[in-house]
């Protein structure tokens, strides 16, 4: 065989090998794998990443929508990530120190929560609540109108129920707790029972079709109202009210004050732990300041 023919055949063989190798590489790198559901350049989203996205009992149509939304969001985020990486220097992408600081913060936070769970005294006496309220009244300005109220929503066809409700809620009546509870459970479409605790007037307005442009005047002039709407009637009895910008009553702030006292105890417990640790380390010469 002539040398030129041999070289030509060898060239064809090398070219064919290169083409086959390239095809294998392309197939491996750029062809959708059976376990992948999406690709952005050389990054693949595996089917396993979709586990847990769809809650049990979700319909097939809703499941499909949720999966599509997840995939589309993944693609968008991956595109943004790659674009950002391409426009930032290696130094700008180095978050080693920040991640280490975040890890330290998480370790400290986890330990402090364990300390709180094991040692925090959660018993709060009523005297503590009252004392805190008396000493900090300036901090308890009422920001919303509040009411003590009972509301019944009753079908307009239920004549007997309406008669009984009017009797229970008449302005000169004393609240019969047991009767109100039984009535609300068996004969109302909807109810609010808050005659011994405060209820935000704005929350009431979200449920009851009361129309007023002057809330304080409305509350001052209404003890009992009936509001027919469609096939139902709302019966509302106001037992007390407080107008915003005044002093918020203790009964309305009790839970808030309890949380404040608990948070103060948490801070004191953590600070004591930190101070004790510092003092012990100082006595043992475990640290130095240069």
Task: Explain how this protein is built.
With about 290 residues, the protein is an alpha+beta fold. Among the domains are: about 35-90; about 140-240. The chain contains 9 helices and 6 strands, in the order αββαααβααβααββα. The strands form 2 sheets. It has a 4-stranded antiparallel sheet.
Strand order of the largest sheet: 4-3-6-5
Query: Which strand-content bin applies to the residues?
Result: 15-25%
Q: Any low-confidence stretches, pLDDT <50, length ≥5? A: 9-31
The biggest sheet, with number of strands, parallel, antiparallel or mixed sense and barrel status, is: 4 strands, antiparallel
* End-to-end Cα distance: 84 Å
Mean pLDDT: 87
Report the order of strands and helices: HEEHHHEHHEHHEEH
Tally of extended strands? 6
Number of helices: 9
- Secondary-structure-derived class: alpha+beta
Q: What is the C-alpha radius of gyration, as a whole number of Å?
A: 35 Å
- Global outline: flat
**Percent of residues in helices:** 40-55%
Oligomer state equals single chain
């Amino acid at each position: 065989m002539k040398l030129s023919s041999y070289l030509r055949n060898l060239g064809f063989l090398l070219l064919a090998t290169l083409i086959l190798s390239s095809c294998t590489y392309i197939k491996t790198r750029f062809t959708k794998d059976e376990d992948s559901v999406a690709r952005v350049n050389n990054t693949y989203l595996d089917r396993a990443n979709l586990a847990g996205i769809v809650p049990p009992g979700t319909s097939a149509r809703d499941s499909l929508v949720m999966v599509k939304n997840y995939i589309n969001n993944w693609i968008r985020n991956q595109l943004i990530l790659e674009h950002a990486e391409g426009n930032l220097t290696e130094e700008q992408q180095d978050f080693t120190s920040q991640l280490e600081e975040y890890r330290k913060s998480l370790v400290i936070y986890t330990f402090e929560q364990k300390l709180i769970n094991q040692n925090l005294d959660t018993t709060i006496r009523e005297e503590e609540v009252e004392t805190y309220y008396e000493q900090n009244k300036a901090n308890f300005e009422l920001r919303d109108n509040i009411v003590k109220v009972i509301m019944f929503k009753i079908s307009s066809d239920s004549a007997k129920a309406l008669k009984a409700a009017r009797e229970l809620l008449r302005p000169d009546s004393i609240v019969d707790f047991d009767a109100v509870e039984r009535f609300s459970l068996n004969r109302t479409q909807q109810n609010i029972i808050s005659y011994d605790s405060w209820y935000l007037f704005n929350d009431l307005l979200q449920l009851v079709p009361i129309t007023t442009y002057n809330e304080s005047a409305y509350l001052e002039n209404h003890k009992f109202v009936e509001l027919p709407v469609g096939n139902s009637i709302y019966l509302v009895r106001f037992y007390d009210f407080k107008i915003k910008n005044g002093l918020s009553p203790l009964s309305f702030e009790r839970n808030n004050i309890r949380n404040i006292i608990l948070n103060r105890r948490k801070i004191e417990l953590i600070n004591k732990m930190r101070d004790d640790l510092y003092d012990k380390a100082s006595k043992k010469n475990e640290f130095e300041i240069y």
